[in-house]
């Protein structure tokens, strides 16, 4: 009995290792494996017998479709949930990564990891603007935007509950620093006035942000005068003149300074000059690196959470497949025994049952991936970012995620069909033929 338990444990561990290896296999290795299996099925005697036995079993699926649908629906649920969760993480990460550029630098207080805990004094701004490496506009002014952010509360359109939103104050050069920002409705705010432009994503997610509406913020009335699009994290924000915002909220310092540099060489020159000036104990990084770091933690958490949830559901789907295929083997006991009696050996029988299970798993994987793509691809949501305000982003169901979901489906089918297939191959012929 101890040997049997040890054998069972080793079998389960072996299957787990095989599944992990299968999930991480690149598509080229999977394609090579599929070609090898197809070659064996088509060009060897055992393979052809396996195909013939599988054809008989698959032909009887319509009579067993109620039970077989348990495998299809169960695996479709696993794949759908897994792909949706991973698409959420990828969408959030892609949104933040699109927010950055290699020729736009962000300046923060030394040691600060985010704008929320950064402070840059006003007398440091002229020193920053005088550093080499900064690009200049047509008017000759350095392309520098001193900024601060204020978290405000706005009602969500989905459930009308109060939600944290980032209210960003930007300098007059912000439009030239962030060239991807473009007005799609209305106009830009006028410096010195309490006027706001809102991101397209923020307008879609939060109430009261239509052009012409008035918002009461900081005990002052602000007028929405325009809507902008940027296809990045800034679409979740409200923008206003930084000096007007600082006056309203009694802010005496900035939190960050965004600088457009003269290309990659300009960034290196700007960073070196910043580090060489003892009056500026500030950190400099490209906005691409900055936002990539901001996205890392949450996207990894979502991916891990999705994998764990998918793994738990996969265990349930495996048991469903096991139960269904054991029942199918029991129902077809006489049929399988007859096949073995006329010359079908154990390997073709095992392969036939496995092919039948893998076909059902493939159907479930395709169904789950299709549903995830139809329901969640480009679905817009918002979640709490590192600055304690909502970030609006879209789910991103990519071909890579669909491929991952399909591999999970086939892995579940492999485990769910293996033990019933072995039982079918070991079924005593004489006993099975006597069953009614």
Automatic annotation (TrEMBL):
TM stretches of this protein: 12-44, 65-88, 301-328, 349-376, 401-422
UniProt keyword annotation of Transmembrane helix present: yes
Membrane topology classification: Multi-pass membrane protein
Domain of life assignment: Bacteria
Localization, UniProt: Cell membrane
Record has Membrane as a keyword: yes
Limits of the MacB-like periplasmic core domain: 70-276
Domain ABC3 transporter permease C-terminal, first and last residues per copy: 308-428
Keywords, sorted A to Z: Cell membrane, Membrane, Transmembrane, Transmembrane helix
A Pfam family annotated for this UniProt entry: FtsX
Matching InterPro entries: ABC3_permease_C, MacB_PCD, Macrolide_Exporter_MacB
Matching PANTHER family: ABC TRANSPORTER PERMEASE, MEMBRANE COMPONENT OF TRANSPORTER-RELATED
Protein name: ABC transporter permease
Organism of derivation: Stenotrophomonas nematodicola
Lineage: Bacteria, Pseudomonadati, Pseudomonadota, Gammaproteobacteria, Lysobacterales
């Amino acid at each position: 009995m101890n040997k049997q338990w040890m054998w069972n444990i080793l079998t389960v561990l072996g299957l787990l290792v095989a599944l992990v290896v299968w999930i991480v296999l690149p598509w080229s290795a999977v394609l090579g494996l599929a070609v090898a299996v197809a070659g064996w099925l088509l060009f060897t005697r055992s393979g052809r017998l396996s195909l013939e036995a599988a054809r008989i079993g698959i032909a009887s699926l319509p009579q067993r479709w109620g039970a077989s649908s348990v495998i299809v629906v169960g695996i479709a649920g696993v794949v759908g949930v897994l792909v949706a969760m991973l698409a959420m993480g990828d969408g959030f990460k892609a949104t933040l990564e699109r927010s950055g550029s290699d020729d736009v630098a962000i300046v923060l207080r030394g040691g600060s990891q985010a704008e929320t805990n950064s402070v840059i004094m006003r007398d440091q701004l002229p020193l920053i603007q005088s550093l080499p490496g900064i690009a200049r506009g047509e008017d000759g002014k350095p392309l520098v935007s001193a900024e601060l952010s204020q978290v405000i509360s706005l009602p969500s359109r989905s459930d009308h509950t109060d939600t944290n939103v980032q209210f960003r104050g930007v300098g007059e050069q912000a439009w030239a620093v962030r060239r991807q920002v473009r007005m799609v409705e209305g106009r830009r705010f006028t410096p010195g006035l309490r006027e706001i432009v809102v991101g397209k994503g923020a307008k879609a997610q939060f109430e009261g942000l239509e052009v012409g509406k008035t918002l009461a913020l900081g005990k002052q009335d602000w007028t929405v005068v325009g809507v902008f699009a940027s296809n990045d994290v800034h679409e979740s924000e409200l923008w206003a003149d930084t000096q007007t915002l600082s006056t309203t909220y009694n802010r005496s310092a900035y939190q960050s300074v965004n600088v457009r540099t003269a290309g990659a060489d300009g960034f290196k020159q700007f960073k070196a000059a910043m580090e060489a000036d003892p009056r500026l104990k500030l950190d400099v990084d490209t906005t691409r690196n900055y936002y990539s770091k901001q996205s890392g933690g949450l996207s990894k958490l979502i991916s891990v959470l999705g994998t764990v949830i998918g793994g738990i559901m996969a265990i349930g789907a495996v048991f469903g497949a096991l139960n269904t295929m054991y029942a199918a083997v029991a129902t077809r006991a006489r049929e399988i025994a007859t096949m073995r009696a006329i010359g079908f050996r154990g390997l073709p029988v095992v392969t036939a049952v496995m092919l039948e299970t893998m076909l059902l798993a493939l159907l479930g994987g395709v169904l789950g991936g299709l549903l995830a793509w139809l329901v969640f691809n480009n679905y817009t949501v918002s979640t709490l970012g590192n600055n304690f305000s909502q970030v609006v982003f879209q789910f991103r169901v990519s071909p890579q995620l669909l491929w991952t979901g399909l591999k999970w489906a086939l892995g579940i089918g492999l485990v769910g069909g293996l033990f019933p297939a072995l039982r079918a191959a070991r079924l005593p012929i004489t006993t099975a033929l006597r069953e009614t």
